[in-house]
Fold this sequence. Notes:
The protein has helices at 2-19, 22-35, 40-64, 68-75, 82-112, 120-136, 142-165, 169-177, 186-196, 199-208, 215-240, 249-260, 263-295, 308-325, 331-357, 360-363, 371-400, 408-433. Helix 6 packs across helix 13 (263-295) and helix 7 (142-165) crosses helix 13 (263-295). It is an all-alpha fold. The two termini are 36 Å apart. Helices cover 78% and strands 0% of the residues. The protein is globular and about 60 Å long. The protein contains 18 helices and no strands. The longest helix is centred in the middle third of the chain and has 33 residues, at 263-295.
Amino acid sequence: xxxxxxxxxxxxxxxxxxxxxxxxxxxxxxxxxxxxxxxxxxxxxxxxxxxxxxxxxxxxxxxxxxxxxxxxxxxxxxxxxxxxxxxxxxxxxxxxxxxxxxxxxxxxxxxxxxxxxxxxxxxxxxxxxxxxxxxxxxxxxxxxxxxxxxxxxxxxxxxxxxxxxxxxxxxxxxxxxxxxxxxxxxxxxxxxxxxxxxxxxxxxxxxxxxxxxxxxxxxxxxxxxxxxxxxxxxxxxxxxxxxxxxxxxxxxxxxxxxxxxxxxxxxxxxxxxxxxxxxxxxxxxxxxxxxxxxxxxxxxxxxxxxxxxxxxxxxxxxxxxxxxxxxxxxxxxxxxxxxxxxxxxxxxxxxxxxxxxxxxxxxxxxxxxxxxxxxxxxxxxxxxxxxxxxxxxxxxxxxxxxxxxxxxxxxxxxxxxxxxxxxxxxxxxxxxxxxxx
Length: 437
């Protein structure tokens, strides 16, 4: 029994490993450096959100025997909105993955240049070519496992350093359970959510689910894996709070070496490279798998792993990432913006997940979402829409050079409007649940 559960946890650790990349390290550490413990609640919310949505995605695969992409395609199979919906979903995933890929590559370069003096632009191209090789020859597994071990050791280094720092317990509890939005923190909050609840991970998690597994077993393994990943993310934020000067990968490395010794620089550098490179392979692959699941219903042969369509999707994401990564953007701001973009995409994907997990034709009567789960998913959708809208309004306000969109009246309108929109979505779900299998 113990061995089975341990293997189950290790299996689901692919989800936590997928979100512990350069984005998590840069965003969480920046949040700690800029706002101390005040944004810990964002990670607590992100962990709850990740667990809720990933559980629903995996449950769909176990109960219906279709992964999330296939379930969405089947749900809209006979509707006139089918093609626009599928294009919107895959478009959101590809755009988010391309942005994420830029951050992955810049993070990998940021790690290796801490140790070796190599021009960043050349390194981005080299890593892009190496990622393309891995995507073309997926049988090369031993290097991926080695990189995974480096990420694990880097996570242990952050946990150890966070304990050595001895943060204030009251500050930890206040930051974790009392939400606050300090001035200038909106983009970081959205980025913390976007880097933990990666939209393409919902499709990836559903796609790798063992359909013979029991729902209870899945929930145990998934919960432990995601919570452990969340604890590492919190440790990164705590270590980031020790950075007193302008935040960068270099100053973060100094915070680690100051507590653990010079060897931590090499562990952090290679670990950051490993996290970036492994994610640089995962993001394009997840996009291609999502496209295959959405569009292969009528022509499976066209979407085999070696097919032109499949290769074109992951190539587009990879090439886009290399192009922007080579453009000379500073790593930290580029990574944070990429995570924030995924935070904007999240409510859109979450709504479709809510539709599918409440469809009795796919889920049956026993495993359809219960109302407590629907209420939690509704709150998640509402909060992510509010945060996304707030950041969009702030950007528009800066563009117009006006303070009109930031006054309290606009905030009240935003909260009420998004709340009404969320209830309209819940109303559609209630109507859907009345359909017969």
